[in-house]
Known about the structure:
Elements: H1 3-9, H2 11-23, H3 32-44, E1 49-53, E2 56-62, E3 69-75, H4 102-118, E4 125-131, H5 140-146, E5 155-166, E6 170-171, E7 175-189, E8 193-194, H6 204-222, E9 229-238, E10 244-245, E11 248-257, H7 263-280, E12 284-291, E13 297-299, H8 301-315, E14 326-329, H9 332-336, E15 341-349, H10 370-386
Parallel strand pairs: 3-4, 3-5, 5-15, 7-14
Antiparallel strand pairs: 1-2, 2-4, 6-15, 7-11, 7-12, 7-13, 8-10, 9-11
Helix pairs in contact: 1-10, 2-4, 4-10, 6-7, 8-10
Amino acid sequence: MDVLKAAKSYQNYNRELRREFHRHPEVSGSEFATADRIEKELRELGIPCDRCLKNGVAGIIKGEGPGRTLALRADIDALAVCEDTGLPYASENEGVMHACGHDGHISSLLTASRILKETPGWSGTVKLLFQPNEEKAPSGAQAFIDAGVMDGVDGVMGLHLWNDIEVGKISVESGVRMATSARVKIHVIGKGGHGAMPQSGVDAVLAASALVMNLQGMITREFNALDPVILSIGLFHAGTEFNVLAQDAWLEGTVKFFNAELIPALNEAITRVAVETARTYRAAAEVEFIPGSGNPIVNHPVMSAVAEKSVTKLFGEQALIRFEKITPSDDFSRLSSLVPGLYAFVGTKNTEKKEYYPHHHARFDIDEDALVYAAGLYAQFALDYLGKE
């Protein structure tokens, strides 16, 4: 079967599935209806599948003879973002949105599954991993590993639709591609009191505010700029009334870095700065440091070589681009730490059709022409890896 021709012929199928998933997003840990819909689609395609997790699905396609086993992975969770796109297929789940492209990952892997199911003459096995809980720890990838889904797998491939790359361009180069991460939770403990008499209490808001600033100074002064670290506090909750000193403040943030060996030093430094800053303001602090995605994502050179062949075969050499590693992270790294892995970035940006918004923005959207590239790459990479020309 001509994979590109098939991907184009199933473009409407891919697009309609993507829009269906976009209308019904579910946050990490709650992807039950999403998993139900994926399972239903796989069974209608005649593809055996297993709910090895309540909110995740693993399917399997066997070729005509024995051979290697490749896992193809798509993450399926959405974000706690209130959609502001005005699209006719906008989220119907208030406060939840597919603001990162995972809806297109699901639909493209389902489309590739259909292509592989209908393609004769290949050997080996393809495992289809529709993985929950990528955006938020605990890792859905690790849960799949613990459930035995990666047993017997020789290689793994995943991709991300990416809004900083033009449609028609794909990055598959070897080496480090995405950072690793950790999640930080900090509870600042003060003492309530009257807002007009702050000396009688301990202001948790003031202590927590100073802590946010001091953490940024710690990052820039204690860690090598050539081995970059990013710390962003995304949640800050405190207080019950405008004229009452907040007794407690809760901070949560994300830490991104490319060197997993920094985890102990980051844990120590963040904890020290939190505790000592709080103490300066007569408060106390409790810190929880939660390593997230495992190691950075690193593309294996052999897998990258296969992917370059696949991209060129489908779309020509002009589709291949080199794209600098990025600081977001993905727990795909837990899968690719077990076996050789390939993680591709597939461009979705087209400012002639859609105004650009970054991932995780309330108005994020993609040019759906990119779905052909994603589905085609999933399928062609599998065939090339398993040895079918």
